[in-house]
Amino acid sequence: MKIAIVWYGRMWKLVEEYSIKRWHTITSIIDPIKNTKIEDLLKNEFDVIIEFSIPEIALENMKFYSTNNFKVIMATTGWYNKLPEVKNMFSKSWTILWSWNFSLWVHLFWKMVENTSKIMNKFEDYDVFWHEFHHNKKADSPSGTAIKTANIILENIDRKTSIITEELSHRAIKAEEIHFSSTRWWSIPWTHQVYFDSVFDTIKIEHQARTREWFALWSVVSAEWLKDKIWYFEIDDFIRELI
């Protein structure tokens, strides 16, 4: 498979490394540091684009991809408030797969949260909250992983109807709200924690990521899955075939 990498940031070396390990070829690297621009994709041959960039750039790039009917693994996070706009760009001619998180293990974590939430929906003595730790270079807070987790809990626990991500300095949290808090700190491993708490005990589900390599590997594996497809996909469409 021929792969184009967009944005020569912290992830590109890992994406390149795992692409080569899986017998693929990098035909384009688009980034100002390399003195290349998005329009240069029109000059090169490739099967799929893998993009790890920043939200503002990702949104503009998706407009370009849709115009030129490219296939793209959109691994950039933090642009989800623009998802309706992206869906409006979508047509039967260009192809996109995006995810809140490209780690397989996070998706297993989400399955655990979903199943546990369905059980806890029957037990009103338990409250639920979330906390995450990320390194201090993380651009979005709460993370896409947090937002996805919040949606899973809201879909499965009837007594919870909204999330709160800001500081509660002037009022107590309401019974129907879930507090999703975040810490950004130095180089701490990325940690996601969901707590189900009662006056008697606490149940915790935790995922901790120690390396970026999983994100790079699974973006490449996702690209292999996407290569022969044309449509709008979310990562759940791919994960469903694995678990």
Tell me what the structure shows.
With 243 residues, this protein is of the alpha/beta class. It folds into 2 domains: 2-98 and 213-239, NAD(P)-binding Rossmann-like Domain (Rossmann fold, 3-Layer(aba) Sandwich), CATH 3.40.50; 104-209, Dihydrodipicolinate Reductase, domain 2 (2-Layer Sandwich). The longest helix has 17 residues, at 104-120. Helices cover 33% and strands 25% of the residues. Strands 2-1-3-4-5-11 form a 6-stranded parallel sheet, sandwiched between helices. The protein has 7 helices and 11 strands.
Helix-strand layout with pairing:
Blueprint: E1 2-6, H1 12-21, E2 25-30, E3 48-51, H2 55-68, E4 71-74, H3 83-89, E5 95-98, H4 104-120, E6 127-134, H5 144-156, E7 162-164, E8 177-184, E9 190-197, E10 202-209, H6 213-226, E11 232-234, H7 235-239
Helix pairs in contact: 1-6, 4-5
Short description:
The protein has 243 residues and is an alpha/beta fold.
| Strand segment tally | 11
Strand order of the largest sheet: 2-1-3-4-5-11
Query: Low-confidence runs (pLDDT<50, min 5 residues)?
Result: none
CATH secondary-structure class of the largest domain: Alpha Beta
Order of helices and strands: EHEEHEHEHEHEEEEHEH
The assigned CATH architecture of the largest domain is: 3-Layer(aba) Sandwich
**With helices defined by DSSP (H or I, 4 residues minimum), what is the helix count?**
7
What is the percentage of strand-forming residues? 25-35%
Mean of pLDDT? 91
What is the CATH fold-level name of the largest domain? Answer: Rossmann fold
Gyration radius over CA? 19 Å
Main sheet, how many strands, which sense, barrel?
6 strands, parallel
Helix content: 25-40%
Strand-pairing-aware structural class: alpha/beta
The dominant shape is elongated
Number of domains: 2
